[in-house]
Design goal:
Rossmann fold; seven-stranded mixed β-sheet; alpha/beta; about 150 residues; single chain
């Protein structure tokens, strides 16, 4: 069983056992070079136990819906997804200073569009998620970021 680190960047100094490192660029220690805006990703259905996407989703040109659907596809039943991303409207420097940011999100994005009880209202996706943790810390290293930990309902 594996943990997939999406958008790992160039700061992977020590590779952890059972971790797969994926990035757009072929940095040292990257296992899979892939543009995450291109679907499907090069992973089998139900093959990954955990996915980590730290400061990644705000860079995706195709947005959050196909990203969440693709994570759902490759996660094993009960598999978990961890996301950290700038919270829209909280800190303009965090949100807009990086010229590669395409879009930031709000906590409501995750509760309104991905929960089993909500997905049928708008029909953007049929792939439901259970939110294990959702917060926007007001201090510390993740200040003004959305932290979401959820698992795929399969």
């Amino acid at each position: 069983m594996s943990t997939l680190i999406l958008g790992c960047g160039s700061h992977v100094n020590t590779k952890e056992k059972d971790h797969i490192y994926c990035d757009l660029r072929p940095y040292q220690n990257v296992d899979v070079v892939h543009d995450l805006d291109v679907y499907p990703w090069p992973f089998e259905d139900n093959s990954i136990l955990n996915i980590s996407a730290v400061h990644l989703v705000e860079h995706l040109k195709n947005g959050l819906l196909p990203f969440m659907d693709e994570c759902w596809r490759i996660l094993m039943p009960g598999g978990a997804l961890y996301i950290e991303t700038p919270c829209a409207g909280m800190d303009p420097d965090l949100e807009f200073a990086d010229p590669t940011h395409v879009r930031c999100y709000r906590p409501h994005t995750f509760t309104n569009y991905f929960l089993r009880s909500e997905i049928g209202k708008l029909n953007y996706t049929t792939r439901a998620w259970n939110i294990l943790h959702l917060s926007v810390p007001e201090s510390g290293p993740n200040k003004n970021c959305i932290i979401v930990h959820c698992n795929a309902i399969k």
